[in-house]
Design brief:
The chain has 326 residues and is of the alpha/beta class. It has a single domain, classed as Divalent-metal-dependent TIM barrel enzymes (TIM Barrel, Alpha-Beta Barrel). 35% of the residues lie in helices and 13% in strands. The protein is built from 9 helices and 10 strands. It has helices at residues 16-23, 46-58, 79-99, 116-133, 157-166, 179-184, 192-205, 240-247, 268-282; strands at residues 3-7, 29-32, 64-67, 103-106, 140-144, 173-178, 211-216, 218-219, 230-231, 256-259. The longest helix is centred in the N-terminal third of the chain and has 21 residues, at 79-99. It is globular. The chain binds zinc ion (2 copies). One zinc ion binds at residues 144, 178, 215, 260. Residues 178, 180-181, 228, 230 line the site of one zinc ion.
């Protein structure tokens, strides 16, 4: 069974993300490290770091990834943007190490008209510079597959493979597979044959051993549209079958898989999407799984469900042992 979780808000403090994850019985966590719209946010206070580390210890078995700031573009042709990106990414690497976050997920960026191969070369060079600048070397950088919107690089597995090959970062690198992005980029997941073909191609071009993390998002936009619009699980153009195949794939049985689906004011949507995914786990060959619309999950606030403890966020969804994510 994969580790199903979600990207969580850090409103009110980074450490609050863990309690939000607990509220949806998540088993893998993704966060932003800080305000996404500032190049130079104030550094994390010692107090904020300590609060996060305490929660990190309480949730020691939960794999945690940070997602890099959307401002960062390591492929940027503009030298000013590239410099700022290198500095910002280096400081995110150090923040992850300080907080005990093992993965930093990186969008490869945009070539802005310079062309894919120039963009990839710039990306690899700037990634290496950021890694050299960072004091910490414990954090694994995961390059995310993209939809290929605009001048975005990294929508083809070959492009990701090229980035991995060109980088001499001297630190562990891997890949984060986003289902919505891959689908929009032309990698089908909708039925068994296309699903197998997609992961065969991943294996042949990148290697499945480098696939360390998943973003589970259905797609509002059509197959091959190169448009990045996330949709609730089962309500988009991928549909339930693709997610059923993925969450039951033995090759990914202990992988973290986090939602980046639309959220409302509370965590209701995350609960529903996770319930949908869990129902698929229970029913490998059952095409009548519950759709997103049906909310059969009891409301934990009203005592409808056993409240999981911090050390057992999965509650009744017990697994044999924590997976070995380091
Ligand atoms: Zn994503
Ligand atoms: Zn996206």
């Amino acid at each position: 069974m994969p580790l199903l979780g979600a990207h969580m808000s850090i409103a009110g403090g980074l450490h609050n993300a863990f309690q939000r994850l607990l509220q949806v019985r998540g088993e893998a966590l993704q966060v932003f490290l800080k305000n996404q719209r500032q190049w130079h946010p104030p550094p994390l206070s010692a107090h904020a770091v300590r609060l996060f580390q305490e929660e990190r210890d309480n949730f020691a078995h939960v794999p945690v990834a940070a997602h890099d700031s959307y401002l960062i573009n390591l492929a940027a042709p503009d030298p000013d943007i590239a410099e700022k990106s290198v500095g910002a990414f280096a400081s995110e690497l150090d923040a992850c190490a300080q907080l005990g976050i093992e993965f930093l997920i990186l969008h490869p960026g945009f070539h802005r008209g310079a062309g894919i191969s120039t963009g990839i070369a710039r990306f690899a060079k700037n990634l290496d510079r950021a890694c050299a600048l960072a004091k910490a070397h414990s954090v694994t950088v995961l390059i995310e597959t993209t939809a290929g919107q605009g001048s975005g690089i990294g929508s083809k597995f070959e492009e990701i493979a090229d980035m991995l090959m060109k980088s001499k970062a001297g630190r562990p690198l891997g890949v984060c597979f986003d289902t919505c992005h891959a689908f929009a980029a032309g990698y089908d997941l909708r039925d068994e044959r296309s699903y197998e073909r997609t992961f065969d191609r991943f294996e042949k071009t990148i290697g499945l051993r480098l696939l360390r993390w998943f973003h589970l998002n259905d797609s509002k936009a059509g197959f091959g549209s190169r448009v990045d619009r996330h949709e609730h699980i089962g309500r988009g153009r991928i549909g339930l079958q693709g997610f059923r195949l993925l969450v039951n794939d033995p090759r990914f049985e202990s992988h973290p898989m986090v939602l980046e689906t639309p959220k409302g004011k509370d965590l209701r949507n995350d609960r529903k999407n996770l319930a949908t995914l869990r129902s698929l786990l229970r029913s490998v060959d059952d095409s009548e799984s519950e759709p997103f619309e049906e909310d059969r999950e009891a409301d934990p606030e009203n005592g409808g469900e056993r409240r999981p403890t911090p050390r057992d966020p999965a509650g009744s969804l017990k697994r044999g042992k924590p997976s070995g994510h380091t």
